[in-house]
Amino acid sequence: MNYDFDVAVIGGGPGGYVAAISAAQRGKKTCIVEQNSLGGTCLNVGCIPTKALIKGANVYQQVCNAQRFGVEGVDTAKVTINMEKLQSWKDGVVKQLVNGVKSLLGGNYVTIFNGSASFSDEHTLAVGDQTVSAEYIIIATGSKVAIPDFITQEGENHIVTSNELLSISTLPQSIVVIGGGVIGVEFAYLLNKLGVKVTVLELMDHILPMVDREISEKAQIRMTRDGVTFHLGAKVQKICNNHVTFELEGKTHKVSADLVLMAVGRKPNTEGLNARAIGLEFDRAAIKSDDSLRTNLSHIFAIGDVNGKAMLAHTASVEAEVAVSCICGVEQRMNYCRIPSCIYLEPEIACVGLTEAQARTEYGEHVKVGTFPAYANGRSLVEGDSDGMFKIILDSQYGEILGAHFYGQHTTEMIAEIAAAMRAEATAEELISSIHPHPTVSESIREAVLAAWTGKAIHNL
Amino acid sequence: MAKVIVMPKLGYTQDEGAIAQWHKKVGDAVTKGEPFFDVHTDKSVVTVEASKSGTLLKIALEPNVTVPVLTPVAVVGNPGEDADAVLAAHVTATSVDADVTADFDRKDEASPSIQDAPAAEIADLKLTPRAKTYMKNNNIDPPSAAAIQGTGFQGGITERDIKASPLARKIAQTAGVDLNHAAGSGANNKIMKADIDRAATPAPLPVGGDKIVSLDVPYKGVRKIIGDRLSKSKFTAPHLYFTDSVDTTSLTAFRKMINETSGTKYAVSDLLIMAASKALRKYPGVNSALVDEKIITYTSTNIGMAVAGDNGLVVPVVKNVQQKSLSDVAAETRDLVERAKTGRLSPAEYSGGTFSISNLGMFGIGNFTAIINPPEAAILSVSSVRKTPVVLTDEEGNDTIAIRPMMNIQLSVDHRIIDGLLASQFLEYIKQLLENPVSILL
Description:
The complex is a heterodimer of chains A (461) and B (442). Chain A has 13 helices and 25 strands. Chain A is of the alpha/beta class.
């Protein structure tokens, strides 16, 4: 049987384009199908644009607070943020990256099809009026914002999702954010820094569920201090015009705002794929795939958000390489236990592995926990923000690193140290005996490990 | 100057040993003469004292890993000295000397030449064959391997020194998993935690197979040493066996009498040792050994008693029985057997025998054959006392059948140096002594 391609990839996000480049690099004749802009949610309406806007908000704050460093001549009353200009800065970054992906694909001789793909049969895709066949197919169609159906919508409401919010050129006066996960909290942070009155409604009793409680609580306290209102345990019932009605501790409350951001999560995107018709199995909305990313049809793989496993850009990219490796005959498996998460507040949150609560459930008594406060770290003080905390969770028997949860300056750049250490199965002792440069925030990692393993950090009583 | 401490050779026949326990941690002060570490030798655990004062800089051998004698186990010196460099210099400088009997007082590293790890070819490095293959297959250049501190013999680099995660190593050590037997699933087949967990979990029992495995234990340590010695004895010394039955009526009465008279409790074994000693003096040809192409006959009657200890078979030796009284022997035996059971004998206490006795009488066995304990030339096996019909002939030549408490004794001899006649005479004399026990003490 002859196919047009060895490998066809559906979706050009961080899962799909990495899969296509990787397959091409391994000598496979590869094509990629993208219906919108290359780069997927991540580059266009996710990771990159939010961080670009947050960068703008942080610069704005720094200018407003520059006096503390002796910078004079700034009339803070006159300092404002021009959303249109910030948006065009963001768009420039996005455009550069999207073009970068395009040239990487081209440079690796990947054929790009613009359009949406639909399965005609197990090996054939219809893209517009074209037909593309391939021996192996990788589904990387991502996810879209989920709108829960238990929230009643009435009247002329002002509900937006992250997609619309990322391109607004006029800031609202106030906003209600429904959902205290990463997306909701990052937008709450961004808008608060830009001067918007923010109210966050979260169903659970804490925000940022993947982060250790001790740290998410610190972040919540900091944001509250900066003016964000949090209602935890709030069950949103109705959105009517500008009013959001929610139940809290048995009572009904109402909050009004110019906009309502729906940030309760995302769901796999399989629209128009015709996946069920060719016999692909689903797990609720997600296409089911195993640890090697194979679906129930052994030549079809599902990577990234569409398989519903982790919904993170960097997970999708790793899944892409695992799937391609399997296609090329080298079996690999994903390990979902060591995926770092980064949350771009100020200070930043970065974590990997188990939270203390999870570790205590899994390892019982055999857990050692150490923390180190940012105020005891020189570089954190130099940076002018010492609210942070570094937390390390170890297995007490061997010093295995079970989890790391950092809240501090530049921590998103530092969590890879722990991810690499965990991957290499380094233990507390290897981290302690690794020299961390001075003066850096990263010294706090070593101190937290010392605190966990020996009970005593050098620079903290 | 830092000093390398090696696995001591604590006995003539000891080729390898394992640390049972460290009394010190890295960084601890060590004073000459105080307990430093315990060594599992072939038969017991011996506490080794520090031969040098200083700070314990490095432990090069974790407990329960068996290594050849003279393998470096630790470095003692002044704080701040580079233990790894000293160890590397030691490995480079030391040549194996099989005749060295004790080790931890070596003087030869008085001025070890510390040098940078030499740019070496694969052939120059102390590598196991698997390690060499691994290096070749993975394009690891020899100079980079020269910096690796090996864990193999004489600090040689084994394959495991190259690829296992730190966590996997720790778990392997605790779980007693040999890294060489774990298949690696990490990057470049590096051995990871999951691989150790797999290796530590017994293979699933074969269902419907001929043999269902309940336990799979490596043949090593004390068990292997005992096995190796017994095989060597059985396969090199042509064994010849002689059996007879002893009427223990008088022996039992005699023992009861002396126990009541003296207030001390004498065991049958004590009387057996005394009887054997007496018989060996009468027939010194049995009290001999074949060592280095020489037949050595001893004046000393050093008699070993096989004891089932916690760690396997041990044979503590009562030395120079010919010079000792029954009460001396009884007291000494009691002490030795007690300590043998818990593995706290010194090597001197279970070596140097000239003859052995294996007494399984208390286990009710009818008769059995023993393997000679090398380099000795004979062993007496003693079975249980059983009421047996025997034919007795009175002074007038009339035969009658009587029920008597009979005990089988059997002599195994090394036929290379002991002939049948001598063996028969010896065994018959033992029988006479046991049937007329007063004569044991005369």
